[in-house]
Write a structure and sequence with these properties.
Distance between the termini: 37 Å
CATH superfamily of the largest domain: Glycogen Phosphorylase B
Helix content: 25-40%
Largest sheet: 6 strands, parallel
Order of helices and strands: HHEHEHEHEEHHEHEHEHEHEEHH
Number of helices: 13
Shape: globular
Bound molecules: iron/sulfur cluster
């Protein structure tokens, strides 16, 4: 399988990996990903190997494409699934001579596939990805509205006690109830306001007696700094300080995740914690919502939503009401509902 997209896309591909392993237990299964998402897949029971394509670094340009084509060719794969719809992914599989190349009709390189599958825009991305198995199996269970396969991420740190010790070093103890906040996103129109997050953090700490951890990558630092400047109560700031697996391990310890529509949201779902997701310029209709029934989406009903598949660096209409109209009270109401809901399985 080739999936060289971002973290969230990779996590949304893990049910397909599981379905592949369940249906072809003896097959040698490998996935090609970018360096940034490699660790989150290590240890997946559906995988024999994780290959890395550093398309923006070591393997950039034509030389890199040649290297990866040679690598894929040497492995003599019989089949390649292409959930990632880029032309480059299609080219890699085609040039490597993989006989069966299954991808979506709507992909840029679909003419380079040997089998094309309709990508149903009305379904969740997890279900759309599972449809790629269609040419390999007559299994009608792929059409189920809610597949049995779950999202998965690796949180195996070198030490199983790592998260507890790490949080203790930051003043969070085993009996503390912890809520995580992931306020970042690559796209500005998918980021809720720092004022809003700061008000929610203060409320969680003072009224709800929770500890709060801020999570994110290095790239999220400017956003996190803006939030910290506005907080009266100080959360524990772990953004940019953890690896992806450590990030997942910390999430596993949390009671709830409050997040924008971003990769962290899918990692939280994979860690089976409840999620409050704040949606701005995107909507659930695009098929990338939290893949769980333990989530609540906070959003405003506006005619301009969704204004794009991903997001923008600024609101195309200038008012940014999709996020500006979301209040801390709205988010806190969703949080209260989620933390009062009985744990799954009761
Ligand atoms: S156009 Fe509408 S949905 Fe898009 S960013 Fe602006 S307010 Fe949000």
């Amino acid at each position: 399988m080739i999936q060289t997209a971002f973290l969230g896309d990779v996590v949304l591909t893990t049910p397909l990996l599981q379905a592949l392993r369940d249906r072809f237990p003896a097959a040698y299964l490998a996935v090609l990903v970018i360096p940034g998402t490699r660790e989150i897949l290590s240890g997946h029971s559906g995988l024999d190997e994780v290959l890395v394509y550093d398309k923006k670094g070591r393997d950039r340009g034509l030389r890199g494409i040649r290297l990866i084509v040679r690598l894929l060719d040497e492995k003599r794969f019989d089949c390649c699934l292409l959930p990632h719809r880029s032309f480059r992914s299609a080219l890699l599989a085609f040039a490597a001579g993989i006989p069966m190349r299954i991808g979506f009709v709507q992909s840029l390189g679909c003419l380079l596939y040997s089998r094309r599958v309709w990508r149903d825009p009305s379904r969740h991305e997890v279900c759309r990805n599972l449809q790629l198995l269609g040419p390999l199996t007559p299994d009608r269970s792929l059409d189920r509205a809610v597949p049995t396969e779950k999202l998965w991420v690796s949180s195996d740190t070198e030490d199983p006690e790592w998260a507890s010790r790490y949080l203790a070093e930051h003043g969070i103890h085993p009996n503390d109830r912890v809520i995580a906040i992931a306020p970042g996103s690559v796209w500005a129109t998918k980021r809720w306001a720092p004022d809003g997050f700061a008000a929610v953090i203060d409320g969680l700490i003072v009224q709800n007696k929770r500890k709060v951890v801020l999570l994110g990558s290095h790239d999220d630092r400017p956003v996190v700094d803006e939030i910290l400047k506005r907080c009266r109560e100080k959360p524990v700031d772990l953004s940019g300080k953890t690896t992806l697996r450590q990030f997942a391990a910390v999430l596993k310890r949390c009671e709830l995740l409050i997040t924008n529509d971003n990769g962290a949201m899918h990692v939280g779902v994979a860690q089976n914690i409840p999620v409050v997701a704040i949606f701005g310029s995107t909507t659930l209709s695009l098929g990338y919502g939290p893949f769980t029934d333990r989530a609540e989406v906070v959003e405003r009903s506006l005619g301009c939503r969704p204004c794009g598949k991903h997001g923008y660096s600024e609101c195309p209409l200038g008012h940014f009401n999709c996020m500006k109209l979301i209040t801390p009270e709205q988010v806190m109401t969703a949080v209260e509902r989620m933390i009062q809901a009985p744990p799954q399985g009761l």
